[in-house]
Amino acid sequence: MVRGGCIALEFLIFGGDILKFAGDAVLVLWRTPPQEVARTISLVLHCSQQIQKKYGRRDTDVGQKIQLKIGISAGTMSLPVFGDESWQHFCIFGPCLAEVRDAEEVAGAGEVVLSATCWELCEQHRLRIKHLAGTRAVQVTGMDPMPWSECQDALRKLVQDPVRHRSKREGAMRPTLLLPSDLNAKDVLRKYIPVAALGKGHINKVLLCDKGCTFLCVLGLPGNKLPCESLHALQSALEIFNSCSTMLEERETMSVAVTRGTMFCGVTGHPLRHEYTVLGQKVNLAARMMVHYPGLVSCDAVTYAASRLPASYFKELPEREMKGLRQPGPVYQYVGVTEESIFGVGLTKKRSEYVPLLGRKQETDLFVSCLNAYRDSGQRNILAVEGTMGCGKSHLLAELASLGQDAGHRVVALELLEIDTRQPFSAIRMLMARALGLQDCESRGDRQRVLKTKLQGTIEESSYCLLNDIFGVKFPISDNVREMDETQRQLELHSTRVKVLEKVSISPSFPLGQRRKNPAICGLCTTEV
């Protein structure tokens, strides 16, 4: 195997099979019988020297120098296939994969390095080498010429389809795989084509490389743009991180990085060996962030801003130098839902005293009529405001909240984000927490004391444990609740929530000296519709 620059044609000419593209690297495989391993290594070395001679050092139009390094290993490996009925991936693993990674890492620009196993198996008499300090790998500094006729003979004995081309100009490129006549073959092969290439975007590729087992996942590919993509990416990243961390326990380090920006999206490689992928600085940044910020979910500043989440969902991380990146910008840890984000919500947009709300008289008149109906006859009403992002829902609801307060009602205002739809009891929890004053509590113990004080006489002592999941507290499970079956517990939970809601919805004051239940409650929803 060779891990180096994307010089696809040379690999194909010398019998290599391109397995994976990984940014500026490519993983290539030569399948050979055991008795031909030594000469196949010579063939791979000959190919590598040709590549270094032609492409090893190049100057780009923007003044950047590109240099190539190659690592080679030899040995057996496994190629498992995994996935589901609709989508599958293949990946390779084995000792030789780790060795080729190590060989590439110790190689310098313009060098070819053999792993220790590869050096033991090769035709050593043909090579001039340099031992590398601190490693068993060797650098190849020279090689006796390998005539093209010998290359062709070695190519004939590789484990692959019969060689069709014999001329030196065309080399020994293997023919493209042709679909068999089986009617089901098309459906089988489609499972290995990224869904993005078929119109959607999910996992783009799976790699076992210098960063370990890596999954490249993409949202927002052409033809599959969706709202809230940065938010969805962060949510998925945290769920994946938590799930994998639980499975791996402390044996491995799990890292996820999320970046956002413009990237090349399309086909890369050679006409006979290519793939649908994404390339660009943001892909490189995500890879570097996984290495420099291990054991957490990180994101760049663009993702942080585009998520439109409160700052409590993030922690700013220290700046670190990252290879190949100049001024990558701030990096944040995404921590997800915390106690601060649960209990610290409020009406973020307040009514402006200087800018009047225009064009919303119909909605405000309807709201005022609902308030009057409740004042005069106790008639309850529910109003729902629906609209696309940016249409002014937040400003309208801030106006309605102000109207409710001016009418003497107690208004409990809260902001619901798209992420709240994935949290159990999010709306009811925020509503009751604000009414009970739990947002001012600094600890779980403080919340428990507030609940016991304000709900005294409202619910039974044995029912406080039913509030644990709603308010993030830990009242001891009572014997009464422990003996309930699931159906009984759900009924009791519902009854307890209703009692708490009725308690917090009693208005302390009302116009004309009246006291009534269910004051105006304004829910501010900024979800994209």
What count of structural domains? Answer: 3
Helix-strand category: alpha+beta
Low-confidence stretches: 1-5, 161-177, 507-529
Please tell me what the overall shape is.
Answer: elongated
Based on the model shown, name its key terms:
single chain, 529 residues, alpha+beta, Alpha-Beta Plaits, 3 domains, four-stranded mixed beta sheet, 34% helix, disordered N terminus
Q: Which secondary structure elements does this structure contain, and how are they paired or packed?
A:
Elements: E1 2-4, H1 8-13, E2 17-22, E3 25-29, H2 37-55, E4 57-59, E5 65-67, E6 70-72, E7 81-83, E8 88-90, H3 95-106, E9 112-114, H4 116-121, E10 127-131, E11 138-143, H5 148-156, H6 185-190, E12 203-209, E13 212-217, H7 229-248, E14 256-258, E15 264-270, E16 273-279, H8 281-292, E17 297-300, H9 301-307, E18 314-316, E19 331-334, H10 339-343, H11 361-377, H12 393-406, E20 414-416, H13 426-436, H14 444-454, H15 468-471, H16 479-482, H17 486-504, E21 523-525
Parallel strand pairs: 6-9, 14-17, 20-21
Antiparallel strand pairs: 1-3, 1-6, 2-3, 4-5, 7-8, 9-11, 10-11, 12-13, 15-16, 17-19, 18-19
Characterise this structure.
The strands form 7 sheets. Strands 2-3-1-6-9-11-10 form a 7-stranded mixed sheet, with helices on both faces. A 4-stranded mixed sheet has the order 14-17-19-18, with helices on both faces. Strands 4-5 form a two-stranded antiparallel sheet. By secondary structure, the protein is α+β, with helices and mostly antiparallel strands. The protein is elongated. 34% of the residues lie in helices and 17% in strands. Residues 1-5, 161-177 and 507-529 have low confidence and may be disordered.
